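SAMPLE LOG
Freezer: B-3
Tube label: C17
Construct: single chain, 68 aa
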Amino acid sequence: MAVHRSLALSTHPWIGDHVLLDTVVVPGTAFVELTLAAGREMACETLEELTLEAPLVLDEDSAVQVQL
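STRUCTURE (predicted):
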């Protein structure tokens, strides 16, 4: 069972504080929180390791769908 979340600057304005080379990116801690939330829904509350291969960029006026 997958857990879906939507991320956008309009619904999560704090993400706009995370800028790398003039580009808004979702911080790694957000991925940890999303993963832990999905894990709780699946009765798995431990995260041992999380590897990010590329930054998730957010545009000012669009949303990104995340599947965990």
